[in-house]
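step: validate -> pass
step: tokenize input -> pass
step: predict -> running
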Amino acid sequence: MEYRMLGPLEAWHDGAPVPLGDQQQRFVLVVLLLNANKPVSSARLAEIVWTGRETKPTLVRSYVKRLRDVGVGIETTPTGYLLRVGDEELDTVRFDRLRAETGRADDPRRKIELLREAVGLWRGRFLEDIDIDRVGGPGVGFPEESLSDVVGDLAELELDTGDHRSARDRLRPLVRSDPASQKHAGLLMRALLAGGDQVGALRVFRGTQAALAELRMEPGPVLRNLAARAEHGDPPSSLPSRPGAFTGRAGELAKIETAAVTGRSAVWVSGAPGVGKTGLAIEAAHRLRDRFPDGQLLARLNGFTPGVPETSVGDALTELLVELGVPAEQIPATVGRKVTLYQTTLWGTRTLVVLDNAASAEQIRPLLPEADGCLAIVTSRRMGDTGEPVRLSPLPADEAAELFTALTDAARVRGRAAEVALVVKRCGYLPMPIRVAAALFRRHDRWPLEHLLHLLEEGGPWGEDDGIAAVRVSYQQLGEPQRAMFRLLGGLPGPDVDVAGGAALAGCDVTAARLLLDDLHEVSLLEEAAPERYQMLDPLKEFAAVEPAPRQALVRLLDFYLVTLAAAVGAAYPFDRAQLPASDRSCPVTPAFADEAAGLRWIAAEQVNLVAAIHYAARHDLPEHTWRLAVLLWRYFNTTNQFEDWIGTLELAWETVSADPGNDYGQAHVLLRLATANDRRGKLAEALELAAQALPKWHRLGDARGEAATLCALAIPTMELGKHEQAIAHLEAALAKYELSEDRRGEAHALSMLGYLNELHGNLEVALGQHEAAARMLREIGHVQGIAHALNNLGSVQENLGLLTEALGSYTEAHAHAAEVGDHCVEAYALNNIGNVHRQRGKFTEAVRYHDKAKEVAANVPDADLRTQLYLDRGATALARGAHRDALSAGRAALDLAVGDGNRTYQARAHRGVAETLHAMGAHDDAVTHWDAAVEAFAELGLPEAGELRSDRVDWECACASR
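step: predict -> pass
step: emit ->
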């Protein structure tokens, strides 16, 4: 007999259904099946099936007899009735057995076979035609999630093996029944994307997003990444094209594939220069594309690149996050937060990361994906202690000969196996010099093989098997212009150069540079990293750098970077043009930038080269290039939150420019930007000191705009440290300087800050006028980002005046403008402020929703004031809706941040929030300390809240009363 409970109750015998009688009889059978192979007493059966009803002693016996009459083998034992059921006779037991067997299987196709059989056992809901209350109640149910888990596991395996249609059809009903399941929604989106249905994938995402919103949740990174793929196309891939005529290395490739299949997290490929580490990694990555459908990334770490410092962990993480689709302005400033965002973005994906040319295990550890299903392939000259080791030796002689033959015209080497063997031996059996030799032979189509061999044998004093001879011969066959370009590229400060940069380096026009670089690429002495961008493999760069590049050529390249960066910054940040440092340098090959986007693209593409150029200039006594390049980059680093490079380059610039006591111009620029950076990091005392040093320098220069900007840079940390009168004086002086300079943006900035301070001190009508004037000026000049700031400030005053409708309008418009320009800091403030308006209207659910949105947007914005404000307002909303523990937690978090940053205004507000919450909780003795601290801080700041708090507490009868 076969019994089925995964759906309507059924029994089958010899391929035919067995009639099970009326509902009472079926209830008895279910109770016996749920207790299969265990005796159940007659009294217990009656108690379960007829709960609370009196039954005759013969009732159970009569139903048991009827079941026996249709073939159900129920035994009578001294302790009750027993139904013996074999493992293959009950579908619930078979289901569990198949799941367990799947866990022990190694072959994915066998796993699929087993899980399909398990899923096929389900014909509907568990015992869907049985009243569960009549067979033992909800506690006896077979867990429905078992089916959804198995369907998810099966769909994932089907996707892995390329059967996306089966996965799609299997998942659709599951997602319809539970749209909030992120795991199943993600799998269905993957299946739809695999079938090219981007629209369907987006519909699934939006359905799940809506279902989660009802639970006050947001889609996780896996769903967000899949939605981005649906909107923008293929998953991220920064892999270069696979090496042409890749030959051999079957064992090494198999080892990497095995690591991927068995779930290893990393493979470490090591070997000598030119042995083919990068080529193997890229070939393996291309072969594994289907196994890692969510992305294949490459980060060049420059561990052994001549003349180029190794890539910092922070820079590598920034590169990888950008490749993963994280907007540059959302990338955090600190390495720790970058690591967290990187690992979170990878979580739930199957992504392959190639970490090329690692200097050490320490450099790559933070870059290794922690998520199951991801793989890192590391290449390095050093052997590592991380991951599965793959050590590359020179190619076997036959594989080396096969590679050379594949790269040349087969007819020219047919029957010349002995000569080919000598050629590859002279190349040290190393792929890189073999490719160089083959490219040289291919280019000279009239050379006999003996001539190439003769040249290799005359290659010089290098050892016979080190491969350098092939590089030297290829170099000697170049024309003098190509040789000169090759030598110059050996001295590049950065890892690569575009065609225009190459033209500046060589002192020629772009057309000539393009031809020279293409010639070097043709003979495999250069690699094309991207269209019209070239890089040199490390062993080749070492060879090229034997003869140092002339200083004049490197100065031309630095001039190119300086002049072009100034043009790109002017295009990308048009309102900064008046404050850019002037320069008398020129470059005939500087490109023009049509719009902001073009300028930003160039800066992003050249960022690593620009930072390397700053370091090169500092080491080679080129102070003007050092500080000007660093100052020009500050806005890009500020808007993209790249504090590591921002601070690092400016501090290097300060070391350089401070050595010249008479260079007020350079020192003023560097000190001003350093002050801004330190204020953003919450280092208020340092910011104040730096701005104070800059101010007299601008005055001596007679630069009113520079003075105004520095007065604002002084005012902000002064205000945050609680010295409001002094901050107002700085801002009023700045406003006058901006008016003198006819700098409307500067005027609006100073007015807006004055409005903020007047609001703090209760001068709301004055503040309202200042903010309205600032917003009007910014609209006139079309400064969208500034308008967003001004409207946020204006909305705050309107809110305090009780003009909630007007405030909501200002905040909503501020949010739209901030989102348009990608300013996530202002966007988060606006969302948070909208939440505050809803709180004041008593709409707490809406308030919490907007606070949560603000928190999500601000997650990777390294702004100390923003984080503190979000905690303060979340705490106020929690207190208003009676969630006292949440309010206390948020208030204490705000206080910790404010104390750490030294912001006195926020400290006072945080003490007040904690005191109000403790008072509401009845913890009056604990609240007193915070009341007193809040009053003292507000009084020191000269803010009206001090008097308000004293008067409010006069008539209280608890310990919180004013003393």
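step: describe -> The longest strand covers residues 266-271.
step: cleanup -> pass
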